[in-house]
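User: Hi! I'm working on a homework problem where we have to compare a predicted structure to a textbook description. Could you give me the structure for the chain below?
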Amino acid sequence: METFFSFLERRIDDCSSLLCVGLDPHVAELPEPSAEAARDFCLRIIKATAPYAAAFKPNAAFFEVFGAAGWNALKDVIAAVAEESRRLGSRIPVILDAKRGDIASTAEAYAQSAFEHLGADAITLSPYLGRDSIDPFLAYKEKGVFLLCKTSNPRAEDLQDLLVMHEPVPFKGTGSSGAPLYEYIGGLAQTWNTGNNIGLVVGATQPEALSRVRAAAPDLWFLVPGVGAQGGDLETALRAGLRADGKGILVNVSRSISRAENPRLEAAKLRDDMAQIIRDQRVVSKTTITEANKTILLQGTNLSSLLSTLADDLLSAGCVNFGEFTLKSGLKSPIYIDLRQIISYPKLLEQVATSYLPILRQLTFHRLAGLPYAAIPIATAISLQGGYPMIYPRKEAKAYGTKAEIEGEYHPGETAVVIDDLATTGGSKFEAIEKLTAAGLVVKDVVVLIDRQSGAKEALAAAGFTLHAVVTIRELVDYWERTGRVDIGKIAATRAFLAQE
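Assistant: Happy to help. Predicted structure tokens:
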């Protein structure tokens, strides 16, 4: 049996679009306040935009306001999408925007109404009653659900931004500050998605939250409202929330299309704008065309599809160079990694910070300790995304004022996790750890973006510390070789050099 998201992805491939057209027949936009006018309003939008729509999302409230006649009009609208699908030869899914949230027989009745009576393919749900409120809908194996996670309304923060310390599978200790409830919901939904039928509603108006939810739920589809009339920026939303395969987001647009002079042209423009943004971002590697090709390229490497995008972007930003370089040790190296370049690329800096979060969520600590100088902007970006308090040990103590060796607020006995960009021999880590422990802080873990695999892990382990790396240099080299991003001769020279280190 085909699952909802398999069906959705086939439609997206057919129309080359990530546009979800919202069907919101506001009474103020209708020639008269009637169910018939609401139906005709939606039928006009459907006919105009169907070639460019990956999905349609009718809002149940604007039909329910007209009573039984409105409910019949909604059923007609969903049937019209099916008819337009037949005309185009490509089935277009319908996501019912109903935001249901109840349990037991009530939830079963809601599911039966949406899926059997109305014929919707998916529905939006509130997860705040727990898994009990979701299961009756998941019983329809071929249907989908989108759980409200981080919504675009201004006061969503009243509840959704509350910090939680609970520790199920998604979070095994997030330090003293905890994680926002919306991020926790994203991680929880990732674990629930055993049938490929759960997605999340994440608003476009807060791209930082969108990025955090993507880190918590790397595989899920997001339904993203808020672009256009609500102030969300299309490019920012895509950069923050897209998966590495260039999919994973349905951008819902309603008023910008319905109020356009020509809804068809507006839908086509939105479709094309998204495609251009994705091409510019190079979410899909230049050496790949389909996700199947991406999978083949990654076979034999330990790099995930998400980290492969990071690997490509580090190369493009000049953070990794191939040639002949003299290292601090005096050795001649065919590869040079300079992560200080990241500060000139805000989106890449954000992406790098996001890549640390899955590791940090597995650790227990009170504060980040960013090492000067390359890791300070990285640790700052992590602090902003994760809500973690930050400190940093100075390279030299102040000769004036407080004469501090460590900047930022901390208390003896607290645990600090050391953040750095690279790990080579571990020397700079030991210097920093000595300053932190002298101040009464406890250090157990060091987290870096890239492990050069030159002995740092072993040296730190011998001293009782654990090194965690987002990626290793050999994993990056394997990936660049298989994708053809780096000349094979340079790859061979790098491998030979790494074997000698």
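For your comparison, note the following. Residues 67-88 form the longest helix (22 residues). The longest strand covers residues 442-451. Good luck with the assignment!
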